[in-house]
Write a structure and sequence with these properties.
heterodimer, A: mainly alpha, 4-stranded mixed β-sheet, 4 strands, B: alpha/beta, Rossmann fold, 41% helix
Chain lengths: 710, 252
């Protein structure tokens, strides 16, 4: 790929895109205006409504004879316009005065449990509350007066309240209001506060009369303290809506450019001038992809900045207690998701014959991909092993986790790995589409042919095929192992290795007709290669345990979990079973997949890129950031062994010995102690040095092996 | 001398439809060859295969001796392609479009600016070369397109109905530009529906019908073989004869 040509395409596409008012609107203007308009506009509206409500007097009727103190408290409140018996029908007034109407019971036990609690807020359950009450003439009359807006609330003083209060019993009062109407809810709050004050003064007076302590009726002075720091509380607030808004708006930024640069070019007839220019299709798609991605990123940045500024303006105290670095990380998290969706958009938009067709194609895809980001608004859904692999959703949940300081290194790693895998697949698809002349010129092509998955007997896999197979197996393995978590280590090991590595390998070989011997490197190993494999397999673990894990020491929990796997859940068993399950099985299954199908596809990239990519994929498959460097190192050595010797058996021997020696040291405590492998966090330097020397001899030996052809 | 363009046995199928069947054509340096045929004859498909936009199912194309399938970048660098329905980038000016394609064709920066100035003068584009292409008239757009195709001084020009949808004045301007390219020693292959253009421009004419070549030669040779006085008659007779032959073949 010629970088200067890609840069030329990027600059041209960006120039043209940024001159399009529609894109600019979506990319910058909309986010800059949207958040202040929605959040501050609604805030202002809500504030002015609240101010108006608070400024107005509440029209409250008192039905019944209130005790003197309560009546005074109500009439003294300047915000209350108290009218005794206002809007009370004759039968209700008579019934309350004569004592024939009494408070109806609440319909359920749960509701009645709170009734009469001395320290509680009363039957209504507190300000703004209101339990359902059985139908009664009082309820009907109060409802009619409030719904007709003759009154905002009705305070009913049930018969016998004055004598009950005087005799030390609980008098019964009820507030009737309409929670939906702002004025009525405000009236309820005001009346509730006055009644509560009266009740508290009544309790204090009774305690004083009986010579009781101040806290007698309170019993327990309960205080709840929120331990969440300000940043977490703000983060929770932001985490509800921010990830969804950021993801949807960032994607919207790239929506029109993706269509314009593909279907738009087809419609204008400029695509064929580009196709007959001396350019590789990968250069065209990379240039276009980068331009759309940059536009998406500008949109993402504009969204993060605008939202951050708006939040800073509206949050209490005018300050956002979320660190600026969190906003910066949030932007970084948008890199993989915009990368993934830009590639999907480009690949799909290329199928459209014109701009309108492109919109029809992409709108449902946009909805399908962006709306799941709304899960952040649902309670209880958080980032975990399952959600970390769901595209788009994982990034939205990770942004939320970052905001509430709950993102762990392993989960960040998983999210970024899976997102990178999806993004890579999407980009490969987009590149594939741009290689198909039929698609670019408006024709149709079968999906199988488009994906390069046509059966082509006798020809080995391509790099695209290898990467696709890896991405599929990675997701399969991950979800499979999660499903099998409860099944025990042995079952999980066997199903994962045979079901998710070896079986897919065999199925792919049969389905696509790859030449078995060449693809799986099924050749007799050279003696020197085999010796090198033995030395490397026996010593690589020492270099890993003594040197590499010092770079990023794994947490204790991971070490314990690995030991548990190596010891097969601590089940009583013999060493040969451990070797069979921990050494031989993974060596066979993983080598046939990684050093067989995957390496065979990557061979076309040349030796160094093929070894590096194969090592990286092997490392990523181990799903932990702490194991990434060690497994990449081992993977690189095994790949080099197979590349150099031309035989998969060298990889299998090396892999089996590496796993087997490590498992033996854990299994045989005495041996582990002797080598100092089980007592220290890192392997001691003498053993590390000895292991490194053996490894060096193995590597030198491997370099002496005559390289295999093909 | 090896012709600039040599295409042999080109075949292109779209599903069950054979769009082009065994078409061979060559164009020498300083020669203009016209590709004539009714709608659906396979002209555009043939030209797209020659320009490397479509890959032929069979046959091979060499430009300046370079096989376009084996060395596509080198071959494409030697050709300029223009189609009548090709538009320009709406939000770029003519100069920006030329600069963009100049870079894609790896024209050296200093030479590129001089070449752009030269083409703007030659094709009389000074009045509109700085305006966005969306504001240009059809004739102005086609001049800008011609400039794009001529920009990197290709050995071969492939022009697919370059004067379609143009008025007489603009069409004549393009035709004269093509003549100048021939005078400069370039090989030109172009398709057209306008017979007078073909009579005026072409050194040789290839008649295409239903994806196959039905006649080929100089204007005089075509007229002589068909017994016609002008190219339109010759064209109609050849197609009519071909249709009758096809009908008889189908009947037998």
């Amino acid at each position: 790929m010629r970088v200067h040509l890609v840069r030329t395409i990027v600059v041209k596409e960006l120039t043209e895109t940024l001159r399009d008012r529609r894109t600019l609107l979506m990319m910058v203007v909309l986010p800059v205006l949207l958040y202040p308009m929605i959040i501050m506009g609604f805030g202002k509206l809500q504030e002015s409504t609240r101010e108006a409500t608070e400024g107005r007097q509440s029209r409250v009727a008192v039905w019944g004879s209130a005790p003197a103190g309560l009546q005074d408290a109500l009439t003294d409140d300047s915000k209350l316009q108290v009218e005794v018996w206002a809007s009370a029908p004759r039968d209700v007034k008579d019934g309350l005065e004569r004592g024939t109407l009494t408070r109806p019971p609440l319909p359920t036990k749960a509701d009645t449990d709170g009734a009469g609690a001395a320290g509680g807020p009363g039957r209504s359950g507190g300000p703004g509350g209101g339990a359902a009450e059985s139908a009664s003439p009082v309820l009907d009359a109060a409802r009619a007066a409030i719904v007709d807006r003759r009154l905002d609330a009705v305070l009913v003083i049930w018969p016998d309240v004055t004598s009950a209060v005087a005799e030390g019993r609980a008098g019964r009062v009820s507030i009737y209001f309409d929670s939906v109407r702002q004025d009525s809810a405000e009236a309820q709050r005001r009346v509730f506060d006055r009644v509560t004050e009266f009740r508290q003064s009544l309790v204090r007076e009774r305690q004083r009369q009986r010579g009781l302590d101040e806290g007698f009726a309170v019993g327990l002075d309960l205080r709840s303290t929120n331990v969440a720091p300000e940043s977490r509380r703000t983060g929770q607030l932001l985490g509800l809506i921010l990830p969804f808004m950021l993801v949807t708006m960032s994607l919207l930024g790239g929506f029109y450019p993706a269509i314009d640069l593909t279907a738009g070019e087809k419609e204008r007839g400029t695509m064929q001038t580009l196709l007959c220019a001396p350019l590789r299709s990968i250069e065209i798609i990379t240039g276009k992809f980068l331009a759309v991605w940059i536009v998406s990123l500008i949109a993402a940045l504009a969204n993060v900045l605008s939202l951050g500024a708006t939040m800073m303006r509206i949050l209490p105290g005018g300050q956002v207690s979320v660190a600026p670095s969190t906003f910066a990380l949030t932007f970084v998290m948008l890199l993989p998701v915009t990368f993934f969706i830009t590639a999907v958009f480009l690949a799909l938009a290329a199928f459209a014959k014109d701009f309108k067709d492109g919109q029809n194609f992409l709108t449902p895809v946009y909805m399908l991909l962006a709306l799941p980001a709304g899960v952040t608004m649902l309670p209880g859904i958080e980032l975990n092993g399952w959600t970390a692999f769901v595209p788009v959703v994982n990034i939205a949940l990770l942004i939320k986790a970052l905001l509430i300081s709950e993102a762990t290194a392993d989960l960040v790693f998983l999210v970024l790995t899976s997102s990178a895998a999806y993004a890579l697949l999407a980009l490969l698809l987009a590149a594939r589409v741009f290689e198909r002349e039929q698609v670019l010129l408006g024709g149709r092509e079968s999906v199988r042919s488009l994906l390069g998955f046509e059966r082509n007997s006798g020809v080995g896999p391509s790099p695209t095929f290898a990467l696709t197979a890896f991405a599929v197996v990675l997701v399969l393995t991950f979800y499979g192992s999660l499903l099998l978590q409860r099944a025990g280590t042995v079952t999980m090991l066997l199903v994962t290795e045979y079901g998710f590595f070896l079986l897919p390998t065999l199925l792919l070989m049969v389905a696509f007709g790859f030449p078995v011997k060449a693809t799986l490197s099924l050749r007799r190993p050279p003696v020197l290669g085999l010796l090198a494999a033995v030395l490397i397999g026996c010593s690589a673990w020492a270099f890993v345990g003594g040197v590499l894990i010092r770079l990023l020491p794994p947490p204790d929990s991971l070490v314990k979990a690995l030991e548990k796997v190596l010891l097969l859940d601590g089940q009583p068993t013999s060493l040969w079973v451990v070797w069979l399950l921990i050494a031989v099985t993974p060596a066979l299954c993983e080598e046939f997949f990684f050093r067989g199908v995957v390496l065979s596809g990557l061979r076309k990239l040349g030796m160094v890129p093929a070894i590096l990519v194969c090592a990286l994929l092997f490392g990523l498959a181990h799903s932990s950031i702490y194991r990434l460097i060690p497994t990449m190192f081992i993977g690189g050595l095994l790949t080099w062994l197979v590349w150099r010797s031309g035989s998969i058996w060298c990889g299998i021997v090396g892999h089996a010995l590496n796993n087997g020696v490590a498992a033996t040291l854990v299994f045989n405590k005495g041996l582990g102690d002797f080598f100092g492998a089980s007592t220290q966090a890192f392997l001691g330097w003498p053993l590390t040095l000895a292991g490194t020397v053996v490894l060096g001899v193995g590597v030198l030996m491997l370099m002496k092996v005559k390289p295999a052809r093909g | 001398m090896i012709p600039t363009l040599v295409a042999e046995g080109l075949v292109k199928r779209f599903g069950a439809v054979a769009a082009v069947q065994q078409v061979s054509v060559s164009v020498a340096s300083g020669e203009v060859v016209g590709l004539l045929g009714p709608n659906g004859a396979g002209k555009t498909t043939t030209l797209r295969m020659l320009a490397g936009i479509l890959t032929p199912d069979e046959g091979r194309v060499r430009i300046g001796g370079t096989d376009i399938r084996e060395h596509p970048l080198e071959a494409k660098r030697r050709l300029g392609f223009l189609s009548g329905d090709t538009q320009l980038y709406q939000r770029l000016s003519t100069v920006e479009v030329l600069r963009y394609f100049g870079r894609l064709y790896s024209v050296a920066a200093a030479k590129l600016e001089a070449r752009i100035t030269q083409l703007v003068d030659e094709l009389e584009m000074r009045d509109f070369s700085g305006r966005p292409c969306s504001t240009l008239s059809t004739g102005q757009k086609q001049r800008a397109n011609i400039a794009r195709a001529f920009l990197h001084e290709p050995d071969l020009l492939i022009l697919d109905e370059p004067t379609a949808a143009l008025d007489v004045v603009s069409g004549q301007f393009i035709v004269e530009s093509i003549r100048r390219q021939r005078a400069a020693g370039r090989a030109v292959l172009f398709s057209t529906h306008i017979m007078s253009e073909a009579e005026y421009l072409c050194d040789r004419i290839v008649l295409l019908h239903e994806g196959r070549i039905i006649d080929e030669g100089t204007l005089e040779e075509l007229l002589g073989r068909s017994g016609s006085r002008n190219l339109t008659d010759a064209f109609l007779r050849q197609i009519g004869r071909e249709a009758a032959t096809s009908g008889m073949a189908a009947a037998s």
